Amino acid sequence: MTDDKLMPKVSIAIPTYNRASYLEQAIESALAQDYCNLEVIVSDNASDDGTEALVRKYIGDKRFVYHRQKINIGPQKNWQKLVYEYVSGEWMMILGSDDYLIDHNFISKCVESINKVSNCVICYGNIRILYEDGGSSFDRINKSPAVMDGTWYFWDYEKGSSIHVVCMLFDRCKAIENKAFALDVIGAETELISKLLLSGTVCFVDTVAVAYRIHSEGDSYNVNFERLYGNYQSYVNIFNFALQLHPTWKKKLLKLRKERLQGFFKTAFYNFLSDNKKTAFKFLLKSKNDYPSEIIPLFFQLKIILAVILGMLFSEQTFKKIRNVFYKRAYGKEAKPYA
């Protein structure tokens, strides 16, 4: 027997598609959590790499549930299935099938923190970034207080102390209320997290909880244009949601909206120039037409002008090398796509 109030059910959801080489480590790390009121749910998006055979050995574990789609329904709908249909926990964590938990006590630590405060909507920890191409890694450490007002954190989000979706527990009912993953876009978690921040209190557990892999087969490298471009709408949705809750913030929110749209444009445009010039300039023109007040002013910035010129003169590979030289000077490491 468990006290549902003090030990609420926690669901670790693992969406997957053709990640059999990584999935076992993700499942093992989830089942290794010391928290007793736990379920681990894998939603398999019609994998054809032996995933179904791999998970059979876990079926006997009462904490483990496996769902398999008959056809590939796309990543966004697979995530929706987990959040809205498969998961039964009050609290939920989404773990990438190529990632894994490091701290076996992470869920317990989060629940302990959640029980100490009222109206908590997110509890998160630190993350370890693993670059498989070069074998390097680093821990992204947040310098956050143990408890924060969500609206305070909202203004700091994406400014160096961001919450990563694979390293957090969140209130599932609040996520559904805020229409989590309604848009089929890369980065839909940004909208989810931003809306949750405006809905309650945030807790932080100071531990490196999850290892997050970046590799050539990951979503960070395989970008669909329309799903990436849809991130603009996610930022607009965040703005509209915040404005509805706090109409007196309008001036400040308009400034934030502009900063977010411009920041997204720069990151995506530079990455496209490193990969496919034709797509990069398609992105530039479409962005200019759809969001003129935010994007057109960027054309007068020296960095953007230089990027356009270099993109026209050099190949994608050469542009990438040039970009990495400048990026290393500024940040001490090479630029990584959409990480």
Summarize the structure.
This protein has 339 residues and is an alpha/beta fold. Helices cover 45% and strands 19% of the residues. Helix 7 runs parallel beside helix 9 (231-245).
Describe this structure in words.
The chain is an alpha/beta fold and 339 residues long. It has 2 domains: 10-214, Alpha-Beta Complex (Spore Coat Polysaccharide Biosynthesis Protein SpsA, Chain A), CATH 3.90.550; 225-331, no CATH class. It has 14 helices and 10 strands. Strands 1, 2, 3, 4, 5, 6, 7, 8, 9 and 10 form a 10-stranded mixed beta sheet that branches. Helix 10 (250-273) packs antiparallel against helix 11. The mean pLDDT is 90.
Write the layout of secondary structure elements.
Elements (H helix, E strand, L loop, with lengths): L9 E7 L3 H12 L6 E7 L6 H5 L8 E5 L6 H12 L4 E4 L5 E2 L4 H9 L5 E12 L4 E5 L6 E3 H7 L11 E4 H6 L10 H10 L3 E14 L10 H5 L1 H15 L4 H24 L3 H14 L1 H4 L6 H12 L2 H16 L8
Parallel strand pairs: 1-2, 1-4, 2-3, 6-10
Antiparallel strand pairs: 4-9, 5-10, 6-7, 6-9, 8-10
Helix pairs in contact: 7-9, 9-10, 10-11
